[in-house]
Amino acid sequence: MSEVAAxxxxxxxxxxxxxxxxxxxxxxxLRAALKDRKSAGRLVxxxxxxxxxxxxxxxxxxxxxxxxxxxxxxxxxxxxxxxxTLSDPGCxxxxxxxDVLEExxxxxxxxxxxxxxxxxxxxxxxxxxxxxxxxxxDDGHTAYSADGIAAANLDGGKMLLRIxxxxxxxASTLELCARYxxxxxxxxxxAMVEPLPYATNDAGRHHLVDDTERLIRCVGIANGxxxxxxxxxxxxxxxxxxxxxxxxxxxxxxILGGAPGPDPATAYAAWERALAVENVRGLVVGRTLLxxxxxxxxxxxxxxxxxxxx
Length: 310
Known about the structure:
By secondary structure, the protein is an alpha/beta fold. Helices cover 37% and strands 16% of the residues. It has one domain: Aldolase class I (TIM Barrel), CATH 3.20.20.70. It has an 8-stranded parallel barrel with strand order 1-2-3-4-5-7-8-9, surrounded by 5 helices. The longest helix has 18 residues, at 169-186.
């Protein structure tokens, strides 16, 4: 039996049935549960480092993990994996869309606490660049607004900014992200910006470019977004030259997990190396930990937590 199946009692038939019933009988309770959750009380944990699980992929139509195109599409399975992850005290919180956050807010761990109690919670903002679409780099506003993040009692907002010099979608996304940065700062909330260099291959598919110089250029662009940089954090890949990349900013950086690979140890080593850089403050990882090759979610999460918090 897989670890996730064995952990099915975290989200048993009664609890899952109650969640489904709430959507019909008491929909306001989902939003209220998120707003009334017990907050972490501070944005940054006491050791100055942060480990968040990312679960906003389905909101832009990205359900695939490796060779499994619908891995993230089973909501009960995804919620169970998130409950396993968030029950680890070394996982400081989550970044996700409103649907996932509201569902987790009404679910409880075995000790009776809400899954999100005491956790840092970041709302995703622009998921309009649907995976594989012709307009993928025009990442429009389809999720949280800054006002919505503040009203939901969240700790900040995350935006994806893929920079492509010949795709017109980049220009509108730049303007949107600049507005988000300003509006989040107006609420004294974190603005998590993920600036990434992109290109298009011969088949017309957009892809991340593994190039230090271009990534550094993107960091400089993200530095200058909005009317203030005081609340901006950067979410960046674990580049082989991460020291040079982080030297381009004084902003705190969070390392993204990227697409899962066949050898998790390689990712773990890259994260550990990146965390040695002074202004790298933690990890924001999703599929690599939620869907590890061996299915051992708790083990993968525990390893990541130990890398961040020691």
